[in-house]
Each structure stands twice: as C-alpha cells, then as structure tokens.
Design a protein that fits this description.
By secondary structure, the chain is an all-alpha fold. It is elongated, with a radius of gyration of 15 Å.
C-alpha cells in the first residue's frame, strides 16, 4: 500500500496528524474511513471536515488500483487524474487518450491498453461499493 505521504490533496500538517493516529498507508486510511461514522470520527480527531476526508479517500482509492506505482502516478497526475472520480468522469476512450498523451509528454511508455482497461473496470467496481 502506498504511504499516506503520496496523497497530493493532504497538507503536510494534516499528514502528520494522520500519522499520529497510526495511519501511515493509504490502505489503512481507507480502512479507518470506511463508513460515514468512521469518517466523522477521523475528521474530528485530526480537525478537518468529512468532505476533506471524502476527497482524500477519492485519491487513496486511485492510488490503490492494481499495478499502480510511482510511474503510473506521474502519468495520472500529468493527465489531470488525481482521484477516482476524475477517472470515472471520463469514458474509456477519453481515459486512454489522456494517459497516452500524458505518458508521451513525460517521455514514458504508456500503460498497455489491457492495463488501462483493467483500471477503468476496477474504478467502476469501486464506485459501485
């Protein structure tokens, strides 16, 4: 699981507060914020709103897609896809075009069509939960 410090939307002070609560990875963050009650409790503990927790969850869900590492993270950020909802706002063709364009801009090899299709399907599944 990626460390919480990989979350772009969380300010440094709040990352430190999360760590103080024992939340060091995005997987742990997703677990402790799984329900509305847990999100409210965590928000109270670190002094933020539940809307902020929801935004961070959106990004954490994206970072936890299968076969997603630092290179893929760079490509997604270049493509303007920071969270799962950014991905879900695109149709499959737009998603693939954005990632291919971002990879080209960064001078990286684009993920395979099969990998991108897998991410898209996984995002659809996560949205349904």
């Amino acid at each position: 699981m990626p460390p919480t410090e990989n979350l772009q939307r969380v300010p440094t002070l709040l990352l430190e507060r999360l760590e103080h609560q024992g939340v060091f990875t995005t997987g742990l963050f997703l677990e402790v914020s799984e329900t509305r009650t847990r999100r409210a409790y965590l928000a109270d503990q670190i002094g933020v709103t539940t809307n902020e927790i929801d935004e961070w969850r959106d990004e954490a869900l994206l970072l936890n897609l299968a076969n997603f590492g630092p290179t893929e993270r760079s490509i997604f950020l270049q493509a303007g896809i920071v969270g799962l909802n950014d991905l879900l706002d695109l149709d499959p063709a737009q998603f693939q075009a954005r990632l291919e364009g971002a990879a080209y801009t960064l001078g990286l090899e684009a993920p395979s069509a099969l990998t991108m299709e897998g991410w898209y399907q996984q995002a659809q599944t996560l949205e349904d939960e």
